[in-house]
Here is the input.
Amino acid sequence: MEYTEAELITIGDEILYGQTLDTNTQWMSVELDKIGIRIVRKTTVGDTEEAILQAFAEAESRAQLVLITGGLGPTPDDLTKPCLARYFHTELVLFQEALDQLTTFFESRGRKLNALNRTQAFLPQGCVMIPNTLGTAPGMWMQREGRVFISMPGVPHEMRKMMEDTILPKITATFQTPVFVHQMVRTVGIPESVLAVKIANWEKSLPDFTKLAYLPSLGQVRLRLTAKGTDKKGLEESVATEISKLKAHIGKYIYGYGEIRLEEAVGNLLKAQGKTIALAESCTGGLISHMITSVSGSSGYFRGSVIPYHNNLKKSLLGVTQEILETQGAVSEATVRQMAEEVRTLLGADIGIATSGIAGPTGATSEKPVGTIWIAVADDKTTQARLLQLTQARDVNIKLTAVAALNLLRQTLSEID
Ligand code: AMP
Ligand code: MG
Here is the structure.
């Protein structure tokens, strides 16, 4: 199905000269995109008849739908209505309904209509009036030969209310607009480029009406599938089928669908298995605990954590020996293994998780550059440790470590490697 193409015109010297920022078209673009209308151009013109008429003609030559804001005030500088009347070869006539609404609007504020206000009830003959419940200038819907012009006031909240209440539903009813079905697949522990290679054939085999977007963030990549068509149920089924095929390629990296966060997905696994956790967070300084406890219900599985930042605490609280510290260092496999195993028993949890690393930018040694980080997850049977070689940026390293540790915990719980 083809998109309906739309152009937006904003009218007003104040926009052109930069005294007012054009927020209207930004908002309108987002809303129109949601209902499947494609914006192909935006134009700003000043308050002159010549510029306005030219903008109308150009927009109509390219788009089926032209949305206009501004130039509807009662003062002589506002020219949109006379321009529309001229462009559509008609004239401005009194709309009784508009006059009634104006009268009510003024009466409710204890004011009387003057002659200038009365001009706002004059609209191009043949237009459909769009009520303005928040102000005095009605909107207009004008149609000829499959082309639609919609004119709205420039005042942002009046324009928005009109769009929401009347115009967006009327556009949907008038134009064939496609249905969109989105699904988000959330992956962790696989870089975007590696993921792209793994799913290249699957991506190529997607139906024409389905598009894939990669949305990477630190340590995670979201894949958004968007199917476009007319039959919502059919599209939903098609997306579900494609996702089950995708699972065969990258299932072990998928932790959830839709809006779920990694820490929630891990929390759900812990709840389902009735297991508890405790953490010894050195280089992450409590970030993982913060993420875990940001999830409601985490008291059901989170015992607590220690932050043994100083080596003395790694020794006294967690039993890391002087020998390990001297021969292998605080950032080492032996250290994080000991920390994970000890915090597990110290805090009485089923699983212990530990981090220790050089977050940077200082603290590097010749063998251990900035970004050298060890993580470990210990349960009653085994301890898994991983070496991460991350970046030069401290905050990035800390966040990536938290994601990697949560993922190692997820893998332990799901028994995947
Ligand atoms: P008008 O309909 O031209 O009388 O516009 C009324 C007021 O709405 C102007 O004085 C501006 O403050 C505001 N306005 C007009 N156009 C825009 C726009 N595109 N974005 C944001 N505000 C606008
Ligand atoms: Mg104006």
